[in-house]
Specification:
The chain folds into 2 domains: 84 residues, Immunoglobulins (Immunoglobulin-like), CATH 2.60.40; 270 residues, TIM Barrel. 29% of the residues lie in helices and 27% in strands. It contains 10 helices and 16 strands.
């Protein structure tokens, strides 16, 4: 594998390479994804017989935790205690003389502390998405954020929360260079009673991706301001969790694994594709599977981008249709927060103030718990005025 940093010429390259063929002995590891989930893994994959995993208690005694028939290469322990050290002995079958001496391995994982509780009440009202890049050279760099203006705008608009993009797959947007600015932003918003929800964009249903989400949920500034739950962007496509059967499976299971990792008390908002505007059903997008572990479903109801919904009556119809269909496809009674378009997302432009105000009111009438506006940088003065005037 060769990885090259995506940076302008002259700033150097970052490269990494490995070759598993050079590994002489099997590897066994254990690491926490979050405070309620440890993943134990081994290489190479066991293809015959079974693997036995034992938990090791504080007294040194071991108890059989799982027997895993081949083929197998990992096991998830959901019975861990936050803030402790989880210890295991993994016994693999002696497939060859080469690995006989290493067939039993002792491993441990540091389990992080439990996460603070958060709930859907944080989105009861108005909110907005805010993205930034941790690279100072990007167009949406953290360096271009006016923290004081953002806090003032959020307060004036009556926002209950800001969904701040903190991770893209396993990539952490909160780079060392960006940390001071983003910490000040989080402190400013929380200090004005605006909750900050960590917005993440999964790329793979894999350890590093899931662990990054859990780390975002655990983030706290040096001043003590905490992230309050996660808004997890679950979409199809190459830039997200994929297409076809593999993508569908990843969309179906990602939030369930994340829920096991962070525990039952952490707000998980599932940002999903809009079934009404995109003509989706359960065969194309696993709404019910996602809804089982979501505290809130948040359809991306970008009416002007996704169709000729470019008037007040059409915007109202789009919102009502979206909320109703999401509720039906969810298969259970789960709160719905409408993701509303505010900026230019296509040739039909941004919704004018009256259209945006009508969409907010339509969301209320449809029974949504709130509206989250997409996105901050694309929202103009007229839209912010409409948001501020819209009561919730």
């Amino acid at each position: 594998v060769r990885v090259v940093a995506n940076r302008p010429a002259g700033l150097g390259e970052q490269r990494a390479a490995f070759d598993t063929r050079t590994w002489a002995l099997p590897r066994v590891v254990a690491q926490a994804i979050g405070p309620h989930l440890v993943r134990v893994g081994w290489f190479p994959q066991v293809t015959a017989a079974a693997v036995r995993v034992y938990r090791v208690g504080a007294n040194g005694r071991r108890a059989l935790a799982a027997t895993l028939p081949a083929p197998t290469s990992s096991w998830d322990d959901t019975a861990v205690t936050p803030g402790t050290v989880a210890r295991y002995i993994v016994v693999r079958p002696n497939a060859t003389a080469q690995i006989a001496a290493a067939s039993s391995a002792a491993v441990h994982a540091l389990v992080p502390s439990a996460l603070p509780a958060s709930s859907a009440e944080l989105l009861r009202g108005k909110a907005a998405w805010l993205a930034f890049s941790g690279d100072s050279l990007d167009d949406d760099s953290y360096a271009k954020l006016d923290v004081d203006q953002i806090v003032a705008t959020a307060t004036r608009a009556g926002l209950k929360a800001v969904e701040l993009r903190m991770a893209y797959g396993a990539f952490d947007e909160l780079t060392p260079a960006a940390k001071a600015t983003i910490d000040r932003l989080i402190d400013g918003l929380v200090g004005h009673h605006v909750a900050v929800i960590g917005w993440t964009v999964p790329r793979q249903n894999a350890f590093d991706d899931l662990a990054r989400n859990a780390a975002v949920a655990a983030y706290r500034t040096p001043a003590g301001s905490a992230i309050s739950g996660l808004a997890v962007d679950l979409e199809r496509g190459d830039e997200f969790l994929g297409d076809g059967p593999v993508g569908y499976a990843a969309l179906s299971t990602y939030l369930a694994t994340l829920r096991r990792a962070v525990g039952p008390r952490v707000l998980l908002v599932a940002t999903v594709e809009d079934p009404f505007l995109e003509h989706l059903d359960a065969a194309k997008f696993p709404y019910a599977a996602i809804a089982r572990d979501a505290d809130v479903l948040q359809p991306m109801t970008y009416w002007r981008m996704l169709g000729p919904w470019d008037s007040v009556p059409k915007a109202q119809a789009a919102v009502a249709g979206s909320v109703g269909l999401v509720r039906r496809l969810a298969g259970r009674d789960v709160p719905i927060d409408v993701g509303a378009q505010t900026g230019v997302l296509g040739r039909r432009g941004a919704p004018p103030a009256d259209e945006l105000a009508a969409a907010v009111e339509a969301s209320r009438r449809a029974g949504a718990i709130g509206v989250t506006f997409y996105d901050w940088t694309g929202t103009g003065p007229a839209q912010w005025d409409a948001i501020a005037r819209s009561a919730w």
